[in-house]
């Protein structure tokens, strides 16, 4: 018998017709020597050939397992091999169609194929079976094409469904798929053995054919994959239900044929590489021998160059396998989208999804679980992972994580037109249904890496859950439960923080509801690879994707010209080309980058969850055994919650999203959605009219940028979160996001999303989302913003704060109140239509906005943080604050807090004034301005306090302006609900009255998503409480500046150098005036008018929604305002009585109950304060209210009034800030806050705002980049504007009379 290698080579040669094949001398004669010529075979006709093959069924059934094919069977197979191997020709396909439709042929044909499969499984392992192997291989190849095409439903003419179902039933009953899986395994092992034999004797002439063609076993394995694909395609085709009924799906899952196909593609890469390497070495040796022979006078030829035929063949097969598996996932994802829409209960959503997804999604919905199960196989996941590594390594030239280049999957490339590949915006109908998959459309141009499969792989893994963890095995390495950097991810993943706000846009999107859940069925899994390796790979992918995006940005920028061409794009400035020059098409790159960051973050969160679960499990085990619970986590030393490495990729992707919107002219507030459509349409998950790269990426970026479900800025370490305990340097977990540029990226994204007033985001279309990103960031001050204020770049943080205040007023509050301009009194009924549409579009959106307005929010949280930082310990006296802060870190100038009730460092902002008076002409700042002056305050606290003053200015002004409208709106609603109105033009219609009345059921009364008078009242008064708290603080800041100015003037009268003291006094007066203008200037807040409206609502509002703290804070603020500004208070409030219904207990005020009176503001407020705060009905409180009445009557203030003010009016109880009720909190905090002008110097950004109170402009990428231009008229430049439109509006709104310029 011939050696195995020679036999296989002969078989391989005869499989190609025998031409040009090296035939060893000892090889047996071909079994088909007496076979008829090809012309004779064709004369029989294709159907006759198939009939003759079917006649071999009985003979093959009787074969012994160790015997070769019967001679007759071998002759028939070899006789018709040309027909079998040409199965895709129309006449032959027609013959196959006829044969499968004939029951008399179908059964024996399937018996023959079954026997061939099992025979090949034996033959590949036999040392000497060349003839039988060749004959079976010819039959097997023909059947793979004929049967696979029929089962996939691609045969022409088509085969009836009943025929395909019966054939599938026969395949299931005979366990054909299990046999194919075994054949794949046996073939791979035989191929590896063949490679070893070639490596042992590469110069053997028997292997000459291997230099130009694949091995016969390789051809067999490729054909095996073909028929597996045919069965799987049939299982997801239109006849899926009938085929599943006969058990085809179960057979595919149980046999694991998809996993074996994927494993075969991966493992045989090394075999192909070894085979090519051996042949290359053999060729080099033969060439050297030939050269020596020629030198000795003998002739000869040799094979030269590197052999790659086997690697190229395997690369093609691997690409085919990857593409098919990705296509399977795409179909499963389409079906999952349709299923989610059907389960939502919304007919509009289901109809929109049905119109959006392809038809096959409908018949695949019941079979999603099966699809997700077969795609979760370990080999399938490993093939996908290798494909991702190959694509990334081909672009960045990086490593393959231990895989040698010759055994790694080759990169998939595609030829595309460069212009089409760089298109970031196009019409939807130009591309398939998912909007961007299909970027590999062929065309003349450059080669690009294939991006479609990458997106689908990421999409699948994003939905999948991690593989099951190994069982808990003690002993385990010890590690702290709260490892560095892990708090953010753990909190987000474990659900310890509520997923607030309810109107967050990602909650309406299927991708996020299924994130990490195991897909629609819960069976989908991610690859089980080390976390750090996967994170590194995903970060590399992000860089490659962003580099691939650059050509698209440049192309669109050049096409648009104008402002787009002049825009400074972050991505263009910070992104380098790929190391190898290979890249993805620009279209789809940003989408892939955003998904990669989402997957990396999800991996971290899920790993942190698992770590926490294991720790709890260990804890329970020890408790059950009677031992003490572990004090630390003892499951994994790696801090799986560490998300520090993800901040930079997230920032870059967020900037790239805005860049893509800029160059394509897309408004991220609209996201490509038109204004046409009913409220029912808004409830559907529809798609915009145009595909846009930024729009497709935004929903992922929005999720990742939000603390609710995304990356959270880490909190400050325990015991270092207060103002006096801040560390000199930021913790590493906080330094990473700040150093990565998270703050400016967030501001740029917010401005891009909320720039347009009246956009779809204002209307909260579900697919666009509302103000969830903004609300989730600014719902509190701690834990995130305390660290950002202390350690962020001051100008970046100040710019973000200014932007947030604009969004608060122009977007969030405008939708709640119906109008934004404080000069307009809103009328009830104006916003009803918009509010009804809003509730349909995104339930919970209005509740989210109202809760943010009334608190907690950034301003309220900042005041609480400051109050808690300076609060005395429990039981401490007035000086306890100073004693508590005496142990503060070095850097605080304790002497500055010598004043009674102040903490160390108090009044530090006066140091430059005092220094100027003590040493005239020496600023002690080295020419560096305020930032270089020695303020006696540590740098983190210094910039925190400067940013607090900056925030106080911006948020107070805009919150006061807009919440005034809320108060007016609530008062009018109360009047309409009671059937009364003071304006003849506003008639209390039945619809208005029903909207304004209080509902009867308790659930509706407490539902902030509704629009009744109770919701309006508690929203308006909640915002008013925050305004009142800030008012108290501003009054103290004003008085402390005035006190210094008076002391400086006294010093000037008795000092030889009066000029320096007078200059210091003037500077202090200017600072005091700036604080005062925040309170009484109509352009700022006009708190005296604000107070009158708030008291009216407290007096007439629904009793259940007017709380004690509302009356307490209003009383406190009224006393502060009247004591600090008596003349202004008397002028504004004395002639502004309030219409109030009297109640029992008002007799003490001389008001009989049960009647309606017009009473002064102080009387109305005193009445409600005494009723709501019974403990506050004291003699001291009566003295305080008496002071207010006296001042409003024009009698002025007395010295004792100022003393009560400095003491914080302790008689007024019920005023709580933070965790303490100390009346001196505001005085202590005000002593630390720098004046507004100094705060602007310290942060590097002016605190001035656009003088147009109706300004809604958010031009540019940051507030710091907006240059305010001062008015050049006779007003002296007191007014400043951000744009010409605001100047024009302010001029027509009254500045013309003030300025006097024609």
Automatic annotation (TrEMBL):
One GO cellular component term: chloroplast
Gene Ontology molecular functions: phytol kinase activity; zinc ion binding
Record's compositionally biased regions (Low complexity): 1-12, 21-38, 489-498
Domain MYND-type: 1250-1299
PROSITE patterns found in the cross-reference section: ZF_MYND_2
Annotated InterPro entries: Phytol/farnesol_kinase, Znf_MYND
Protein keywords: Chloroplast, Kinase, Membrane, Metal-binding, Plastid, Transferase, Transit peptide, Transmembrane, Transmembrane helix, Zinc, Zinc-finger
Topology of the protein relative to the lipid bilayer: Multi-pass membrane protein
Transferase among keywords: yes
Catalytic reaction list: phytol + CTP = phytyl phosphate + CDP + H(+)
Bias type Pro residues, positions: 465-474
Domain of life: Eukaryota
Pathway(s) per entry: Cofactor biosynthesis; tocopherol biosynthesis
Enzyme Commission code(s) on record: 2.7.1.182
Region (Disordered) location: 1-46, 465-502
Keyword Kinase: yes
Compartments it resides in: Plastid, Chloroplast membrane
Family: Belongs to the polyprenol kinase family.
PANTHER family: DOLICHOL KINASE (PTHR32523:SF8), PHYTOL KINASE 1, CHLOROPLASTIC (PTHR32523)
Protein's recorded name: phytol kinase
């Amino acid at each position: 018998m011939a050696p195995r290698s020679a036999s296989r080579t002969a078989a391989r040669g005869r499989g190609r017709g025998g031409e040009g094949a090296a035939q060893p001398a000892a090889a047996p004669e071909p079994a088909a020597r007496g076979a008829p010529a090809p012309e004779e075979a064709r004369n029989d006709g294709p159907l006759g050939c198939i009939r003759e093959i079917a006649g071999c069924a009985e003979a093959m059934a009787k074969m012994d397992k160790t015997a070769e094919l019967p001679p007759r069977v071998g002759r028939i197979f070899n006789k018709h091999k040309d027909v079998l191997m040409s199965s895709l020709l129309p006449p032959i396909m027609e013959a196959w169609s006829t044969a499968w439709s004939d029951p008399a042929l179908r059964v024996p044909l399937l018996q023959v194929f079954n026997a061939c499969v099992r025979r090949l499984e034996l033959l590949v392992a036999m040392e000497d079976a060349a003839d039988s192997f060749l004959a079976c291989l010819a039959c097997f190849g023909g059947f793979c094409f004929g049967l696979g095409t029929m089962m996939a439903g691609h045969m022409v003419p088509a085969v009836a469904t009943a025929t395909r179902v019966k054939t599938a039933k026969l395949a299931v009953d005979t366990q054909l798929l299990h046999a194919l899986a075994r054949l794949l395994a046996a073939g791979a092992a035989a191929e590896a053995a063949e490679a070893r034999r070639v490596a042992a004797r590469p110069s053997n002439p028997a292997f000459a054919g291997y230099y130009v063609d694949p091995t016969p076993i390789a051809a067999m394995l490729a054909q095996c994959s073909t028929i597996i694909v045919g069965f799987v395609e049939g299982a997801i085709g239109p006849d899926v239900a009938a085929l599943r009924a006969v058990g085809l799906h179960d057979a595919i899952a149980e046999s694991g044929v998809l996993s074996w196909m994927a494993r075969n593609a991966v493992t045989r890469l090394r075999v192909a590489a070894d085979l090519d390497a051996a042949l290359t070495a053999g060729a080099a040796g033969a060439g050297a021998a030939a050269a020596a022979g020629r030198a000795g006078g003998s002739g000869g030829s040799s094979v030269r160059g590197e052999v790659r035929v086997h690697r190229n063949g395997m690369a093609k097969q691997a690409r085919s396998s990857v593409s098919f598996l990705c296509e399977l996932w795409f179909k499963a994802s389409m079906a999952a989208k349709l299923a989610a829409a059907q389960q939502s209960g919304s007919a509009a959503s289901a109809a929109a999804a049905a119109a959006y997804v392809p038809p096959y999604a409908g018949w695949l919905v019941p079979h999603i679980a099966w699809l997700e199960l077969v795609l979760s196989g370990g080999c399938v996941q490993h093939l996908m992972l290798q494909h991702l590594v190959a694509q990334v390594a081909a672009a960045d030239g990086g490593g393959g994580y231990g895989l040698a280049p010759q055994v790694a999957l080759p990169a998939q490339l595609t030829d595309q037109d460069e212009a089409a590949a760089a298109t970031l915006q196009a019409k939807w109908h130009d591309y398939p249904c998912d909007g961007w998959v299909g970027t590999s459309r062929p065309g003349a141009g450059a080669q690009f890496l294939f991006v479609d499969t990458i997106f689908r792989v990421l999409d699948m893994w994003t939905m999948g859950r991690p593989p099951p963890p190994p069982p808990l095995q003690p002993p385990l390495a010890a590690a702290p439960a709260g490892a560095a950097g892990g708090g953010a991810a753990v909190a987000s993943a474990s659900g310890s923080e509520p997923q607030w706000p309810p109107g967050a846009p990602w909650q309406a999107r299927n991708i996020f509801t299924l994130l990490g859940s195991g897909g629609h069925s819960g069976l989908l899994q991610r690859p089980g690879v080390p976390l750090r390796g996967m994170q590194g790979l995903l970060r590399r992918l992000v860089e490659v994707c962003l580099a691939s995006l650059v050509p698209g940005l440049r192309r669109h920028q050049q096409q648009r010209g104008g402002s787009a061409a002049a825009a400074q794009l972050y991505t263009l400035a910070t992104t380098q080309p790929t190391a190898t020059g290979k890249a993805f098409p620009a279209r789809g790159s940003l989408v892939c980058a955003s998904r990669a960051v989402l997957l990396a973050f999800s991996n971290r969160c899920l790993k942190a969850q698992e770590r926490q679960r294991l720790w709890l499990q260990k804890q329970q085990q020890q408790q059950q055994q009677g031992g003490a619970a572990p004090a630390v986590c003892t499951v994994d030393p790696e801090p799986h919650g560490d998300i520090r490495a993800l901040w930079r990729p997230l920032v870059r992707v967020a900037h790239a999203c805005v860049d893509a919107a800029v160059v394509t002219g897309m408004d991220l507030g609209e996201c490509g959605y038109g204004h046409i459509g009913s409220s029912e349409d808004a409830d559907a998950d529809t798609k915009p009219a145009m595909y846009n790269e930024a729009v497709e990426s935004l929903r992922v970026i929005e999720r990742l940028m939000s603390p609710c479900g995304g990356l959270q800025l880490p909190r400050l370490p325990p015991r270092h979160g207060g103002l006096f305990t801040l560390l000199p340097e930021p913790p590493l977990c906080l330094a990473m996001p700040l150093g990565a540029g998270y703050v400016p990226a967030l501001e740029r994204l917010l401005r891009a999303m909320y720039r347009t007033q009246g956009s779809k985001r204002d209307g909260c279309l579900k697919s666009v989302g509302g103000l969830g990103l903004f609300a989730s960031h600014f719902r509190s001050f701690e834990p995130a913003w305390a660290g950002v204020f202390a350690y962020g770049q001051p100008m970046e943080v100040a710019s973000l704060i200014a932007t947030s205040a604009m969004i608060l007023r122009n977007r969030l509050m405008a939708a709640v109140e119906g109008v934004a301009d404080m000069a307009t009194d809103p009328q009830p009924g104006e916003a009803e239509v918009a509010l009804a549409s809003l509730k349909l579009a995104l339930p919970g959106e209005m509740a989210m906005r109202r809760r943010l307005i009334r608190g907690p929010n950034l301003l309220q949280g900042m005041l609480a943080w400051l109050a808690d930082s300076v609060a005395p310990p429990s039981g401490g006296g007035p000086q306890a604050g100073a004693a508590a802060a005496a142990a503060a870190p070095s850097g605080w100038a304790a002497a500055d807090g010598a004043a009674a009730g102040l903490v160390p460092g108090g009044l530090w902002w006066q140091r430059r004034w005092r220094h100027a008076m003590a040493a005239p002409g020496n600023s002690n700042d080295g020419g560096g301005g305020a930032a270089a002056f020695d303020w006696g305050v540590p740098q983190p606290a210094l910039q925190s306090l400067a940013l607090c003053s900056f925030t106080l200015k911006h948020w107070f002004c805009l919150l006061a302006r807009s919440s005034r409208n809320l108060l007016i709106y609530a008062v009018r609603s109360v009047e309409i609900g009671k059937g009364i109105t003071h304006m003849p033009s506003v008639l209390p219609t039945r619809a208005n009255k029903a909207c304004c009345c209080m509902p009867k059921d308790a659930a509706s009364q407490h539902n902030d998503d509704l629009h009744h008078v109770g919701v309006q009242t508690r929203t308006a008064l909640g915002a008013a409480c925050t305004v009142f708290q800030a008012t108290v603080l501003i009054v103290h800041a004003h008085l402390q500046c005035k006190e210094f100015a008076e002391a400086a003037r006294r010093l000037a009268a008795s000092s030889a150098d009066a000029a320096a003291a007078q200059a210091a006094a003037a500077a202090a007066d200017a600072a005091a005036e700036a604080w005062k203008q925040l309170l009484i200037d109509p352009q700022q807040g006009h708190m005296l008018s604000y107070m009158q409206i708030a008291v009216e609502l407290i007096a007439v509002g629904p009793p259940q929604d007017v709380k004690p703290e509302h009356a307490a804070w209003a009383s406190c603020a009224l006393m502060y305002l009247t004591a600090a500004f008596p003349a202004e208070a008397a002028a504004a409030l004395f002639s502004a009585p309030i219409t109030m219904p009297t109640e029992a207990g008002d007799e003490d005020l001389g008001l009989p109950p049960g009647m309606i009176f017009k009473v002064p503001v102080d009387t109305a407020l005193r009445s409600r304060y005494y009723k709501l705060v019974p403990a506050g009905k004291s003699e001291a409180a009566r003295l305080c209210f008496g002071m207010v009445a006296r001042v409003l009557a024009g009698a002025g203030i007395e010295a004792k009034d100022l003393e009560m003010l400095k003491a914080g009016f302790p008689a007024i109880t019920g005023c709580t800030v933070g965790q303490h009720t100390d009346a001196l909190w505001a005085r202590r905090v005000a002593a630390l806050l720098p004046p507004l002008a100094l705060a602007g110097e310290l942060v590097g950004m002016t605190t001035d705002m656009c003088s147009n109170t109706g300004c809604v402009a958010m031009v540019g990428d940051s507030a710091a980049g907006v240059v305010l231009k001062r008015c050049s008229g006779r007003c002296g430049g007191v007014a400043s504007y951000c744009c010409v439109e605001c100047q024009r509006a302010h001029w027509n709104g009254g500045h013309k009379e003030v300025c006097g310029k024609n």
